[in-house]
Fold this protein.
Amino acid sequence: MWRMAGKVKPGQGGGDLQGDALGRFWRRRPVLALPVALPIALLTAPVAAESPGPVAARGAVRLGLAGPRTGFSVTLIGDEAELAWEGGGPPLRWPALSTRLLGVFPLAGREVAAFVFTPPQAAGPQAEAPRTLELLLIAGAAGEGMGAGILGLELWHWEGEDGAWLASTLDAAGAGVELRLVRYAHPAASGPNAVTYWTDHLFWREGAPLIDRPPRPPPPASWPARLAAARARLIAALTPPPTHLTKDLLAASGLLAPARLFAENGG
């Protein structure tokens, strides 16, 4: 019926009126085409990217052995933090619900920036829900001519559901020869007032993540030993230092589940 009406020509008897009426009907009502065109437009419309949030941190760091500092700013975009460099260059990204600049520290003739961040919680039956979980990310020059990258990832502050906790401080020792990560910990089974402490000594390496060189090996199955094991698992993933710390890499580190990491039967 619709196809025949479209072929009716003027001067063909009763077809005149029907053809002209139908033609006027469709010409005057283009809105009838919208129910067909609108879904197509919706399907083909580009999805808007998430807008960056407010600037979470600003600073400047000396990436090379000489020359001026390079400014940077960190914004939260969705559940990631993005560090953008003034003047361009690949940004650094890591999973974060919040982040703050802890400080800029001298190291091996250069400078590194340290950020404390709250990671998105892992999902699944073995996921933990600690009272507090903050991680430490260290960013800086990966090596001469290599640009900036993520040099280290550490547990910074944790409070477990059973009352166990770990806290940390960071400074640069020996005019930037090493970073000293001082740990204060309270294992739940050690008594209500028992606190132990130790120091991780982090050194810069060309084209590789920071490495801990303790004066002596930690006791087996101790908290320092378990954190050292987690750090060792990260070495391969951070070599060469990447610009993007993915959620999968973060989950594989074991740092999202400190209670399991520190458990007596943990690895």
User: Anything to note?
Assistant: Confidence is low (pLDDT under 50) at residues 1-48.
